[in-house]
Amino acid sequence: MYDVVLLTLGSERDAPGGCGSGGACCGGATEADPATGADTGTTGGTGPGESTQGDADRCVTERPRVPVLACADALNARGARVQTVTARSDAEIDEVLAGLDGPPRPDGLTWPDPDGKTRLVVATASDAQLRAVLRRLVRRYAPAPSRRPADLPGDRTLPDLPPVAVLPLDPARGGTHRDLAAQLGLPRDPAAVAAAVLDGTPRRLDLLRNDGGSVTLDGALLGAADDAGRPLHWRARVEVDDAILTNGDEPLLACAIGNAGGYATLDDVTLLAAPDPADGQVEVAVAVPVVVRSALGRKRVRLEVRRARGRAVSVLPREGKVPYLDDGVEGELTRKRSWWVEPGAWAVWSI
Q1: What is residue 34's DSSP assignment?
Q2: How does residue 67 score in pLDDT terms, banded at 50, 70 and 90?
Q3: From the CB of residue 277, how many other CB atoms can be counted at a distance below 10 Å?
Q4: Fewer beta carbons within 10 Å, N or C terminal of the chain?
Q5: Buried/exposed 87-115: b ≥16 CB within 10 Å, e otherwise
Q6: What are the φ and ψ backbone dihedral angles of 309, each rounded to 5 degrees?
Q7: What is the CB neighbour count within 10 angstroms for residue 343?
Q8: Is the dihedral of CA 229, 24, 50, 124 positive or negative?
Q9: pTM for this entry
Q10: What is the pLDDT of residues 144-158, one digit of tens each?
């Protein structure tokens, strides 16, 4: 029978030194670049941490929440050896992830155990919390470029990460707000999550890494609105592989970078046509306001959506700061940022 670790991220929402690269586990402040103060998404262990929005994303209390207890009961009833852990720092997350390590390798690399008997369940109040754990997995197992082993797939920079089970702590997030678990059709009932852990199979999914050191599971949305909710114009060069969606000379209203479909629409505008988290590609869209004239010579603004798919995307802001959401985490882009696809790099337990 399996050892199962039920991992919950701690409640020090605004405490310094918590998990998620230095901030509170579920995200207190925005990660800041030491030089610019801009969000970087870096995976380091110091500095401010990730942020989520609204009271709905506030972290768990000191005591395990009811879904965690119910899942533990269901696992115990099946004979699993269950450990419930609340991690309040990156170091405490890393202690849990160490249980997923494989035997020592001749090259000295830390590598996941493909035949491990320890299974991980991540209890999440937001996609940002799941992302925080995946960031630590990447940091643990991704080898330095100078130590790239021969057995690493040619289209990847990291090995197959150990599968995780997702236990949503807020069932309401599967309704009007489609979190990643809802998009993937993962179970939300604790007993069903326990069954997926013990009886399910790994469902491998693509992971987006970026040159800021972070990861993206769902997607990112760049752009902002004023206090009245009107979108603000901004400019950036957006490239997908060899395709240029905009060279930075025209105003943009939004840019969506989609691994999954969380940012597929903006109000009533469809940005991403068919994002698929398991197709080995990232879908990118930009919304460009275009002035057109009617037959009578009257001007009107039409929103043009340009899309492209590929292995990598880069966004180079032309002026000022560009606000964004990345897996629900707020930030500001002030310099070029590149994302690339790691095909099938992570996995979830599913029936």
Answers
A1: T
A2: very high
A3: 25
A4: N
A5: bbbbebbbebbebbbbeeeeeebebbeee
A6: -125, 150
A7: 16
A8: negative
A9: 0.84
A10: 999 999 999 999 999
DSSP 313: E
CB 170 within 8 A of CB 50: no
Q: Are the CB atoms for 110 and 161 separated by under 8 Å?
A: no
Residue with tokens 């987006």: 208
Contact by Cβ (8 Å): 208, 218: no
Tokens of 292: 């057109």
Residue 248 identity (one-letter amino acid) = G
Beta-sheet pairing, 219-222 with 215-216:
unpaired
For the chain, the C-alpha Rg in angstroms (whole number) is: 21
User: Interior CA angle at 245 toward 242 and 246, to 5°?
Assistant: 120
Closest CA to 74 of 166, 189, 165: 189
Taking each helix axis from N to C end, the angle separating 90-97 and 127-141, rounded to the nearest 10 degrees, works out to: 60
Tokens 């698929």 sit on residue: 276
Give the DSSP letter of residue 146.
Answer: G
pLDDT digits (tens, 9 = 90+) for 111-164: 999 999 999 999 999 999 999 999 999 999 999 999 999 999 999 999 999 999
